[in-house]
Structures are given as C-alpha cells and as structure tokens.
Amino acid sequence: MTRARRAAVVVLFVSIATIAIAYGAALVTRGASTLAPWIAAIAVPISLIAIMILGAVRGDKGIGRLGIPFGFVALILIVGFLAALILPATESSTSSLWLGLPMRAAIVIYGIGVLPIIVLPVAYALTFETQTLSAQDLERVRELGRSNARNQAQSDT
Question: Helices 115-126 and 67-86 meet at what angle, rounded to 10?
C-alpha cells in the first residue's frame, strides 16, 4: 500500500470515528450537544476528501495535480458547513435572498452542493491523461482477468 493510500485510509478511519462520536454526543444529549454539529461540519468533508483520494491515487504517483482541486473542495465544504452554523438563524419573509434562497440555505445548496460538482469534473478532465490507467496498467488488469478466469475454470472442473 502506497504512502498516499495509507494516509487516506487512516484519515478516513479517524474522520468516520469522529463522525460517530459527534452522532453519539448528539444522541446522548438528545440533540442538545453544542459541539456535535461543529465536529461533524469538519469531519464529514474530511472523510469525503479521503474517499476522493482513495479513488484518485495511482501507484506511487499519489494524486498528482488533483491535490489542488481536492484541497479547494475540502476548503469550500468545511467553510460552507461552518458558515451555515455560524450565521444567525434570522431568516424571515423579509430576508434578502441569494439566487432565490435565504443566505444559509444558499451557502449549503450552491457552495456545498453545486460548486464541487463544477470543480471536480473540470479537474478530472484536465488531469485525465496523467491520472488514468496507462497502457501497461490496462494490460496488467487484462492479464489478471484472464488469470482469474483460468483459475475459476479450473476450480469448476
């Protein structure tokens, strides 16, 4: 296991354990925990980025240039969740709207929901040649498939 993959697995495990602690704190206090939403607002985006890294890492090369958009998305997610928690709940029928939504809802929908959907496909498209499987990788996968098929045919007989 490469260093990048191992680090992503450790970060994913720690962030999921932290999310479980946040849920536990919310359940034990019957929703009155003041720390649980803050913990989750940081741990959830970190777990998402760790999963993205696990999907993008290729051998010893790590994630290459995808580190910048992944970092940007992590920052957007964390700041968006924290902003939704920090901003006062003062929405009313006279509140100003951002693209048709109250400010906190707009941050969640547009910042957390839409912005990563725009950034990540562009990042993957720009790094497609360097991050996808090489011809050698494809041949290795095909050979493993043929070997697996032979082994399975032998075990069936």
Answer: 170
